[in-house]
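User: Assemble these into one structure.

Assistant: Restating your components, then the assembled model:
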Amino acid sequence: MSMRHWIITVIVLAAMATLPWWAGDQYQIHLASLIGVYWILIAGLNLVVGYTGQLSVGHVGLLAIGAYAFSILAGRHEWNPYIALLASGGIGAFCGLLLGLPSLRLPGFYFAMATLAFSMIVTEISLAQGDLTGGGAGLPVPGFPAPFDSPGGFYSLILVVAIVVTWLTWNVARFTWGRALVAVRDSVVTAQAVGVPVFRAKLMVFVFSGMTAGVAGALFASLQSYITPDTFVFELGLFFFVCIIIGGRGTIVGPLVGTAILTALPEVVAPLARWSTFFYGLLLLVVVLLVPEGIGRVAEVVRNRLRAKRAESITIQPDPERLARALRAREAP
Amino acid sequence: MLAALIAGIAAGALYACAALAYNVMFSTSKVLSVTTGHLSMLGGVFGAWMMTGLGWPMPLALLGAVLIGAAFGLATELIAIRRVLSRSDEHLWLLSTLALATMVQQAVALWWGTEPKPFPRLIPQDFSAGLTDQKYWLPVGVALFLAAGLELFYRRTLYGKLFVAMSEDAFAARARGIPTDLIRALSYALAGAMGALAGFAAGQLTFAYFALGLTLTLNGFVALAVGGLGSNLGALVGGLALGVLSAIATYYLGGEYQQTISVGLLMVVLLVKPAGLFGSQQVRPV
């Protein structure tokens, strides 16, 4: 990172840290907390989708598992919320392992369908096991003790977790591991040939994303303070996925901006709320068809297109003088 | 028990139809489209709308539903497949068809409503017919008709042979002068018509419901993967096996675990026989 990047990062961090003091109302703090919670999940998922190229559309299932684990442990069994938060992460990682072990061996479309089915299975089980999850009626979720019991306080807790998770994924992404993951995404055969343990690499990031999804689920449940199976619909999983694709694959900043914009947009532009899922689909289609590199690279793509056209417009004309000179030079010796 | 089995066979026939539609699209483009189940959903919803909303007679509504399915199939190819296939990234088609499927499902949900609505009777029959009720045997008949029709189409007609040629090797087919883009578009229109016909025939079983598409995309894919990608016989067998298995499981365990069972079946088959029951062995990438 250059000096300029550091300065921008520090300014953005300072703005985010002081948000509870300059935010207009409680709702804006809630919205910022929601973006933070989504980002905790998406940061982990970004390693799976953006870096490793495994198209998981079912991470909402892992979010639900984390949320239910937290509400059952902290709510019914009255565990310390921080230990319950860690336990949710652990349970999410374990379920990620269970899901990843069979499904990560499958090729692209098969894997996407397996994760889609996983999210449906979680919804089915949460509806069927009424004794554990409260069934369709749902469960109340406890909050965190002071100083994190107010909206502003809870926001700062989420912010700290989000920064730690972002730092972890950044560390994975910029060193050998990240290169190995990108190699797996771009060509499995090449990755194998240069000695990347493909399945182990995929499984490790997937388990990591399960952990972040579990933590995000716990914070999400606490933020919403009441959860039902209807909270964790497939469209939410699609939303996470769209955030990453729109932000651009293989970066961390792109999906972060994508998450913030896509979460805030339907809330700010009220008429969009009804059409939000349709809008996500449309946005995904447009991005895939026009700029598969992600919106962050629009400027770059457009510039390349323009430059290519300019190169084409150069006309090729015979240059008799130069030809004559060349012929003379050849005849001279 | 017998009633559960027959309902399972009828549902399995619908899964088999979705798997057949997958096969038709896969043969020319090597793409597994997420929109497959939505073709049947459109057939069911538009069939119900044309008959109850517009008051059209049954044959006209059938024609209309099939045409809408074919038009959506064609639009899928033009919008989501054609541009994407020309790029080298192999999974972009998954994203583009997923986007299109989401858009269609949301648009239908907003226009038609999120509640399942009843589908009118297609053939005059008393509601006390029990196990011989048309809602059970219409999907089965359509599945058999589609499988037999596809087989005849592939073996006896020139266009069918072009489909087969493209499924063997699209580049070689192009080199022999086959208009591959046109054939691919035709295959998507054909798959759309087949899916809409199946959705129309099974309308009384599934109701006209916007969320049918995603379930059917998943279950049709499970049927296809169990039977073997590319095999029409496998699609029929896989669909029926899935339908009967979930019917039996529902009978003994209750209806809460439908997806769990279908995915369990998929995992077991993929572990034991990765190419499916009737599929050809996959070639290694190197």
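Strands of chain A lie at 139-140, 226-227.
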